[in-house]
Amino acid sequence: xxxxxxxxxxxxxxxxxxxxxxxxxxxxxxxxxxxxxxxxxxxxxxxxxxxxxxxxxxxxxxxxxxxxxxxxxxxxxxxxxxxxxxxxxxxxxxxxxxxxxxxxxxxxxxxxxxxxxxxxxxxxxxxxxxxxxxxxxxxxxxxxxxxxxxxxxxxxxxxxxxxxxxxxxxxxxxxxxxxxxxxxxxxxxxxxxxxxxxxxxxxxxxxxxxxxxxxxxxxxxxxxxxxxxxxxxxxxxxxxxxxxxxxxxxxxxxxxxxxxxxxxxxxxxxxxxxxxxxxxxxxxxxxxxxxxxxxxxxxxxxxxxxxxxxxxxxxxxxxxxxxxxxxxxxxxxxxxxxxxxxxxxxxxxxxxxxxxxxxxxxxxxxxxxxxxxxxxxxxxxxxxxxxxxxxxxxxxxxxxxxxxxxxxxxxxxxxxxxxxxxxxxxxxxxxxxxxxxxxxxxxxxxxxxxxxxxxxxxxxxxxxxxxxxxxxxxxxxxxxxxxxxxxxxxxxxxxxxxxxxxxxxxxxxxxxxxxxxxxxxxxxxxxxxxxxxxxxxxxxxxxxxxxxxxxxxxxxxxxxxxxxxxxxxxxxxxxxxxxxxxxxxxxxxxxxxxxxxxxxxxxxxxxxxxxxxxxxxxxxxxxxxxxxxx
Length: 630
Known about the structure:
- By secondary structure, the chain is of the alpha+beta class.
- Among the domains are: 6-122, Winged helix-like DNA-binding domain superfamily/Winged helix DNA-binding domain (Arc Repressor Mutant, subunit A, Orthogonal Bundle), CATH 1.10.10.10; 151-292, Rossmann fold (3-Layer(aba) Sandwich); 455-516, Alpha Horseshoe (Serine Threonine Protein Phosphatase 5, Tetratricopeptide repeat), CATH 1.25.40; 523-630.
- It is built from 26 helices and 13 strands.
- It has helices at residues 33-44, 52-59, 67-81, 147-151, 179-193, 204-207, 217-224, 268-283, 289-292, 306-319, 324-340, 345-361, 366-383, 388-400, 405-418, 423-435, 439-452, 457-469, 473-486, 491-503, 507-521, 525-537, 541-554, 562-571, 575-588, 609-617; strands at 6-9, 12-15, 20-23, 49-51, 91-94, 98-101, 106-108, 162-166, 170-171, 199-201, 228-237, 240-249, 254-264.
- Helix 17 runs antiparallel to helix 18 (457-469), helix 18 (457-469) packs parallel to helix 20 and helix 21 runs antiparallel to helix 22 (525-537).
- The longest helix is centred in the middle third of the chain and has 18 residues, at 366-383.
- The protein starts with 5 loop residues before the first strand and ends in a 13-residue tail after the last helix.
- The relative contact order is 0.06.
C-alpha cells in the first residue's frame, strides 16, 4: 500500500514527495533536509513518545553525535513552526526521555502539487523517507533524500555521468573573511556529492587554485573539463553566517538553481546538507533513478561540532604543504579536532593521510609513518566501516608498507565501489596495475585519477613517467608539459623532463633539468641519487661518488631512502654494496621497493641470486614485466 503523501496539522500541510511544508497562506517553510525529515518523523508518529536515542539514530545514521545536535534540530523546528516551548502546540518535551508531536494530524488525499506537471512514475520504483520506530530505522537523509526526485523522472537510457566541480566559496567582503570556511564549504559539498552514483566530481585539490573573490566559474569549469559547476559566497559576522550558492550549466552559463541562507555558524552542516541535496536533485535527470536511490546518507564520517570542523579545515590546509614542519602542524590540528570529537572519522583519515604524505614529502621513516597511520585508519573504520577515504588509506598501507599486493588491490577496489570519485584510490590502483603487467587497466585508472584531479602535479607528472616507460613518448610529453604549466617548481616535473630529454639523446638538457630538480627538492634524496646515477652512466664518476658520499653522510643522522643508495652503487658497478642497501631497504620497508621488479636503475642486479631471493620474498616474482616511474 502506498505511503500517505500529504499531512495537515495546525496551519500547515506537509508534502512528502515535494519535501516541503506549506503554510495556509501559501508560503513555504525554508527547512533543511534534516529539519524536514525530523518533522516528517514526528508527523508520522503523532502522539507517540519518540526517545532521544532513537531520534539521533534515525536522523544521523552511521554517525555518533551529541545530544546537543538533536536539541538544535528541535529548536530549528520550533522556530520554523513558531512553536512556544512554554505553551507548545506542536512539539512537547518529555524531560529525560524524548519528544512527542501533540498536534492533531490529518492524512489528506494525494494530489499533484499546484503549478507542477505530473511526471510518469513507476510504482515499483517509488522511494520514500518512511521511518518505523518499531522496526528498521530507514530514514534517508541529505543526499539519500534525492531518491524521490529520481523516481519521478522517466528512467534514463544509457545515462551519461554528469561531471561536476565545486569551487571555493567567495567572500562577500574581504574584511574579516574566513578563508578556511570558504574552502571548507567546497570540500564538504564535494564529499557529499561524490557519493552519488553517476556524478563524477572533481577533487578539492584541483578546485583549490580557484579560491578568491575574482574567480570566473565558467573559465574554471572549462579548465576542469566539467559540464556543471557550483560556486557561491559567504560572509561571517560573529556567530552568524550568510551563504549563497548556485549551480551553473557550463554549456550556456544558465543558473539551474540558486539559494541563500542566513544561519548561525553551528548550523553550517544543515546548510551544506540542503545545498548538496538541492544540487543533486537538479542533476538527477542525468542519472539513473535506481542508482541515485542508493546514494549513502550525507555526513557519514563527518562531525556536527563547529569547533572540530574548523580545526579539521586548518589541518587540511597545512597538509597541502609537503614540508615536514607543515605536516607536523597538520597532524597536531587533526589531533585537536579529534580531542573535541573522537567520532570524527574523516579527521582520523586526515591524520592518516598527513602521516602518509610525510613519506614522500619529507622522506620519513616508513615505520614512523604507517604504524600511527594504521592506528588512525582503524579508528576511522570502526566509526564508518564503508568510508571510501579510510579504505584508500588502508590500501596504501597494505601496498606501500606490508607489500601485500592482493590485499591492497582488494581495498582499493572496495573504496572505489563505495565512492568512485576518490582520486587517490584510482591512482593507487593504477600504479599497482602498472607494476603487475596490466598496462591497459593501469593507464585507464591513471586517466580516471587525473580526470578527477586534473590540477594535480604528481598525478600528471607520474602519468607522464609511466607513459615514457611504456615508450609512449608523445603522450608523455603532453602530460609533463601540463604538469609544468600547473607547478613549474615541482621537482618531479623536472625529473620527468630530464628523462624525456635522455630518451631523445639530449644529454646536456637532461642534466640541466636533473640539477634543477635537486635544487627544488629541498634535500629529498631521490632526485639527488638520480642525478648521481646518470652522472655515473655518462662517465662522470668523480661527481657521482661525491654525491654518494654526501648521501651516506646524511644517512648517519637521518633517514635516507635505501633504494636511492642501492641505485647509486649499482650505477658505479658496486654490486654487493647495492644488494646490501636493498636488504636494508626491505628491513626499513622502503616504499620504493614496490618498483623493485621493474626499476631500470637496478637492471645490473637482476640475475644475482640475492636479488632473485628478494624478489621471491616480496612475491614480486609472480608477476610479469611491468613499468616503473623514476
